[in-house]
Amino acid sequence: xxxxxxxxxxxxxxxxxxxxxxxxxxxxxxxxxxxxxxxxxxxxxxxxxxxxxxxxxxxxxxxxxxxxxxxxxxxxxxxxxxxxxxxxxxxxxxxxxxxxxxxxxxxxxxxxxxxxxxxxxxxxxxxxxxxxxxxxxxxxxxxxxxxxxxxxxxxxxxxxxxxxxxxxxxxxxxxxxxxxxxxxxxxxxxxxxxxxxxxxxxxxxxxxxxxxxxxxxxxxxxxxxxxxxxxxxxxxxxxxxxxxxxxxxxxxxxxxxxxxxxxxxxxxxxxxxxxxxxxxxxxxxxxxxxxxxxxxxxxxxxxxxxxxxxxxxxxxxxxxxxxxxxxxxxxxxxxxxxxxxxxxxxxxxxxxxxxxxxxxxxxxxxxxxxxxxxxxxxxxxxxxxxxxxxxxxxxxxxxx
Amino acid sequence: xxxxxxxxxxxxxxxxxxxxxxxxxxxxxxxxxxxxxxxxxxxxxxxxxxxxxxxxxxxxxxxxxxxxxxxxxxxxxxxxxxxxxxxxxxxxxxxxxxxxxxxxxxxxxxxxxxxxxxxxxxxxxxxxxxxxxxxxxxxxxxxxxxxxxxxxxxxxxxxxxxxxxxxxxxxxxxxxxxxxxxxxxxxxxxxxxxxxxxxxxxxxxxxxxxxxxxxxxxxxxxxxxxxxx
Amino acid sequence: xxxxxxxxxxxxxxxxxxxxxxxxxxxxxxxxxxxxxxxxxxxxxxxxxxxxxxxxxxxxxxxxxxxxxxxxxxxxxxxxxxxxxxxxxxxxxxxxxxxxxxxxxxxxxxxxxxxxxxxxxxxxxxxxxxxxxxxxxxxx
Lengths: 400, 229, 140
Hints:
By secondary structure, chain B is α/β, with parallel strands linked by helices.
């Protein structure tokens, strides 16, 4: 028997008290870390969407259906397609302030050879592309060959395996990094592959394609604006001077998401604050009640010759051990839970959701851990110090 | 070592009365001598336990001094007083005072490990448990013990550091005749070994074992047996 | 009833309730993806079936472990640990649908893993308690 083991014995021999305190601290750290990570993931998802889109302006055919389809592809993950004449690419390149243009091709697979859920196919032109290639290069150093595809992070296939699209076996050359957006569900291919796929799709009888020549159509045009020109101004010029197309600045497209994101983040922050205030008050009450319940026990320690400082440090030690366990559990469960259920959260919020990297996660967890331990240790210490100032003789007298 | 109360008083303030304070212990001077049992008897609320707590260094007197040898114990800082109590004053508080989280033997050992690493404290604890007759319960928890066994546990714990003074507050309360006799005999044996024992009790039987007896009446002790202290 | 036996029974009840939750859940609120439009099953269907039957066996063994004596109780608990470990592994080794966004990957897989791991932890705790009680009672 050593003095050091006393707090452990008190903790182990009072399982109900220990469990109650652990749960309170668990709740505190779980909410703080879970909430903070959720807010960070939403922000990171939005940032990653903006970067992944990679263009300043997206130009699509001037029809209501096209816009809905594009938004579905980007924000809802519902595969779609729409086409316009290829000649627009040259017209757009001539608009003042346009630095680079590159066409993209959209196609929705009927069946991806596994499930009935269609997959979005995005084709790009390697010669002009500036929005997709930088991402693909990170995962695949070489140029994509014909019928080679790069898959988004969420497509559950291994590299070098094959996916059958419109009857053509396409080889998975690489898998992209996670973005937390709907673009993680897409498949990327170069223009030659996409043209073969469009031709194959045409054979299967997709109506819109039946009258069109795959060589003469594109779906959208990505535009990079020259330095010194305003993105909105260039988009405005395109809308005035180029007929039958509509130009959308990327930033304005995602502003809708940004709005709902700030709404949700606000709610989460209020929730974290509310839980913390509630838990802090609860902790103070619980510790005060606990110290009160244990005052005879504390008086006995004093009778044996424990000094006030020793008693307070023993209670502090107990508080720190329990809160450390609760905080550790809270951090582990929230980090692990968010990791495991991030796709489910993304699906239900319908917003891009990308968890912070390991470094940021570790820092957040460490801060949460320290904060939770400090808060509960302070409340336990305060109660113990307050009680230790009362003469043990008075407590023993009261107890009888 | 002699424990002495010099003109100690304990005054409590109350809010709801015309006279806003009362004396739980009026000016009292008494001395506990080595090798003797001093008994304080009296009605409930007469100030017996208050006096004992003041002697134990657990309740600061309103006036007067408590001397252990030459040291005025209330002039010491909390840390020093606690250490002094740990080494020299054994206290058996009123009621059941076993610590639930510890086994019987751990309860007994605890005072001996608070300020030092004690190698033979387990042997000493077993010796004391044998003396008080509960050695077979060494590894049980206080909740498994009867009232008498718990009192004996408190006695063994108070004696683990071989204190010069033993202060016992109602050590025979709620005990049957057999256990009462056993506890009183134990205290007599310790006194015979040289310990100064103060016994606060209602028990009529105790008078037989005491060298000096005081009756406490409204906060004032009157000596009714033995040589004046 | 002695405190230890009560604790053993509580663990048994938690184990059984969680196993039932896994069994009911895989058939209802976290079932894998539904059938295709043509009525045929998706790729994750077999995983769902495997988890369902494993959960069924887990329910049986954890339930029985509450009512049988000594050695059989221990065996039932050990089998429950093995079955729950298998249930946690199944969604990772069996084929699921191609998109991580789909129900089987986004919801079924993590929930099956979490519940199965919880059952395994509780079952291990139960084994420890059963062994401790046996030692205490002198049954070798």
